[in-house]
Amino acid sequence: MKIKVTKLPKSEVEIEGELEAEIFESYWDKALKKVGETLKLDGFRKGKIPESVLLSNVPENHILEEMAEMALADYYPKIISGEIESEKIDPVRGREGSQRPSASNGIDAISRPEISILKLARKNPLGFKIKTAVMPEIKLPDYKKFAKEIISKITDTEKDITVSDEDLENTIMDIRKSRAPKVHMAEATPPQPLPEGEGQMPEPELPEFNDAFVQALGPFKDVEDFKAKLRENIKLEKENALKEKTRLKIVEKIIDESEMELPEILVEVELDKILYRMESDITQMGLKFEDYLKHLNKTVADLRKEFRGDAEKKAKLALILNEIAKIEKIIADPEQVAREIAAILEHYKEADPERARMHAENVLTNEKIFQFLENQ
Questions:
Q1: Cα–Cα distances in Å, from 146 out to 202, 326, 335, 371?
Q2: Maximum distance among all alpha carbons in the chain?
Q3: Would you say the C-alpha torsion 159, 162, 167, 168 has a positive or negative sign?
Q4: Given Cys at both, which of 9, 263, 275, 318 links 133, Cβ 3.0 to 4.6 Å?
């Protein structure tokens, strides 16, 4: 079998070819057996219907379609792995010549294939056309230089993560307010009208800040112990805020200066994630997502359009981080991955172990990439 691979816009390829008649015909018995296993026919048990009876009750085209599905399921992995000789065509540069079977000539597919059958008949070649998105070519800028420049421009004021007494007192006041009894509107309306004739919401009575109060919040000995631990937490938050701000500047610069043809499928996947998280958050608040959309006077299509820019950024960032990891040979520590998987499966009992592994590897690898950039 020979195939022709044509590059399409948006990092997609079209694969066209024919599977030899003899190979295609070899799937007849397998397809017939599979059809017989699912067919219900009075007087016969499933899987025990004679071939002559099957052929008189099932259209030949249905069996041919099953043959095509089986054959392409077997040969598609060989096609994209480069095991089959191919002729590559670029719409701009034209024919690039025949490529002998080789892993280096493989197609780095990243989406489910869209398959069209062009020729389907007994004792004839199977003609097919397959379209799939592929990993795009990425031209990265000097990301190490960008990281170094951005980090060098962090001011002393930004680096100052000292926790002042004012920071501490403001945080304590926020905690006390969050624990104050809720005041209902009915209770808030004064019996006598004010000069403007409007009710005023009285300030809630704050709980006293003492040992009993902090002990109710968690494992704290007393007020002083609480203040010491709170000060450390505020400091940690400031450190994380500076780190996130710096990382954001680095990745935005790399994204802006990178060149790639972004596959549409990756943008759609990121949009799905954004909307899934939004729906989950709304549902946890006790609201129906449909009602929330009505309140906004928007449709799901409107939201997909609105968040498209964010989705494109996320998709580009994922590709860029993956490319940097390959170039710099950055991989997650296996022991850390194992611990992270265990933590995920402990917290989410129904989680799929394989998905948990992929998530853990992705998160930990990305963290190592950022640390690598920060150390420039």
A1: 53, 19, 31, 14
A2: 97
A3: positive
A4: 263
